[in-house]
Design brief:
The complex is a heterodimer of chains A (187) and B (54). Chain A contains 8 helices and no strands. Chain A is 60% helix and 0% strand. The C terminus of chain A is likely disordered. Chain B is mostly helical. Chain B is 72% helix and 0% strand. Chain B starts with a helix and ends with a helix. The chains are: A mainly alpha (187), B mainly alpha (54). At the A-B interface, α1, α2, α4, α5 and α7 of A face α1, α2 and α3 of B.
Chain lengths: 187, 54
């Protein structure tokens, strides 16, 4: 009865959900993305090398799924300004904690590349090499994206990253560009 | 590109001391610690069942 593939999949799902939320501010759409990723993973299960990194494999599938949706959507819609991601930024309710909300806002001001690198390495627990493989760039590129992302957040929040009252609000959009969750933005 | 995974380890070792990285983790873990939603588990159960019938 035991199915190691399934067990590993379940194990990785929580983290996968958190990653999905960095692409879609709308929770339902983030969940859809996770489901689709799970379905794809299941149908490709023969391609998975037992013993290799299931989490990295799933993240790669999710990322590719998101990007192909995005390309499709870009062809359909061409307006709206973008705050990609910020599923994380849109949830002030439970912890209306000021510093935390500012932190989420700061995240949305990063470029997509930088935010992604920061999240993969700083939050999802991947090494530079693993993150590099997921994103399809060199490890050095990930490393410099992470450090630029970190520096930018420090700048937005104040020197040590602990200053809640700072410059994020009103500074909106400035650092955000490109690939965007346009559909979710319309809500 | 002189990066090594050794350096990655080093960077991750410092995560806890870094207020920015700590907050990042907190934001992320807020979601990652939620229980898996029912529909996801249902879907998984269905896939599992289908697999066994093959």
């Amino acid at each position: 009865m035991s199915d190691p593939f399934r067990d590993d999949l379940i194990e990785a799902l929580r983290s996968l959900r958190a990653f999905a939320r960095t692409f879609h501010r709308d929770e339902a759409r983030a969940e859809d993305l996770v489901q689709e990723t799970m379905l794809k993973a299941w149908t490709k299960r023969e391609q998975f090398q037992p013993g290799s990194n299931m989490k990295a494999w799933l993240f790669t599938i999710l990322r590719n799924t998101y990007l192909s949706e995005l390309r499709k959507k870009k062809r359909e819609v061409e307006d709206a300004d973008g705050s990609l991601v910020a599923g994380l930024a849109e949830k002030p309710k439970q912890d209306g904690h000021m510093a935390m909300r500012d932190f989420r806002n700061a995240l949305t001001l990063l470029s997509d590349d930088q935010r992604e690198a920061l999240i993969l390495v700083g939050a999802s627990g991947f090494s530079y090499d693993e993150a590099a493989e997921i994103v399809g760039v060199a490890a050095g590129t990930i490393k410099s994206r992470v450090s630029r992302a970190r520096a930018r957040i420090a700048e937005l929040l104040g020197e040590d990253g602990n200053d809640p009252g700072s410059s994020v609000v009103g500074n909106d959009r400035q650092g955000t560009h490109s690939a965007v969750d346009r559909g979710a933005q319309a809500i | 590109m002189a990066d090594t995974s050794g350096k990655a380890q080093e960077a991750q070792g410092t995560v806890d001391d870094d207020p920015i990285m700590r907050q990042l983790r907190q934001v992320y873990d807020n979601v990652a610690q939620e229980p898996l939603p029912e529909n996801l588990l249902d879907l998984l159960a269905k896939l599992d069942e289908a697999e066994r019938k093959r």
